[in-house]
Amino acid sequence: MSYPDWETIRNSNFMKGRNFPLFEADMPSFMCRPIAVRPEQLEGADVVIIGAPYATSWGPLYAGVEKELWIKAPKRVRQQSARYPSAYIQEFDFDVFDYLKVVDYGDADIPEEANHAPTAENVLRAQAAVEKKVNDALDAGALPIVIGQNSPCGSFAIAKPVAEHTKGKVGMVSLDTHWDAQHLDHVSMDPRIAGSGSWKHKTYELLPNFSIPNLVEIGERGMLERKDIVRRYLNEGARFISSWEVRSGLGIQGVVDALDQAYGGTEAVYAHFDMDVMGGAGPAPGDILGELAEPIGLTEYEVIRIAHEVGKRGIDGFSFICIPPGSAVVYRTIVYVIMYLLAGIAVAQGAKAGD
To answer: Do 83 and 30 meet the contact criterion of CB atoms below 8 Å apart?
Structure first.
């Protein structure tokens, strides 16, 4: 699947003749929002967009796909967002930016070597770079939204600052194909690392105010998990909604109703969307995910709808990983997830059709 270069994109029918705030020659800001490069420029922001271009493995591939394609996701999501001339969403008949101030804080300063030599020390440096930007957003009273590709930079690095800014319990809404709850990172084999297969376990191990009874886990299916891992979360009160359950009678409204469990008695909620949850059921074939694709994925509508409903209930941190690489329409799906999430927040603040 061929992804167009920036010159082709910016000269398309939807974008020709327009100008864009740029971080780089080929990287506009998300939805052409104001660019922030210093913490003080976040003052008054409601939402802060942060990129985490990070994919960890030894060698040129991640999950059987060229690593550089994964790493480009934050830039490409921004490129695709530039096709939309406003934040007016037809379905809701209001402009999100009339209610929310959104700024783009650029990419975290992830060391280049962390993407190619994922030693524990390099990974911790990459994680710290994301944490710094997330903390800046939280200190400004804004919602950090991190467009990442791999853990810990697109998961634990957001969960940890949210926990540290919260005195009470923290709930979680997690969409994924995999539980990511192994006890040890399989790349570094270092207990300090909240890696791709272990970040959720490390979250509950190292961040004591994250509450398993307030975990709503959505989308896993099939035969990839150990029964002792899954049953541990079930026995401790997590709500697990497999994509099989969604298809077998629960439906999207049942999923929406189940989100309330993340909010019961919590002071904050963190939402994490691992986009391999679509597994080919979304707008592009699952093969672009390489080894991460599995049948019975969620659809793009279901993912976007869940984001919208989370926004209506309130959210304190939001992040993506495993954005299927190389497809323009998949990157647009990420734009929709973010914008419909923000529309939910606007609805909670009183936005209504016709405003």
So the answer is: no
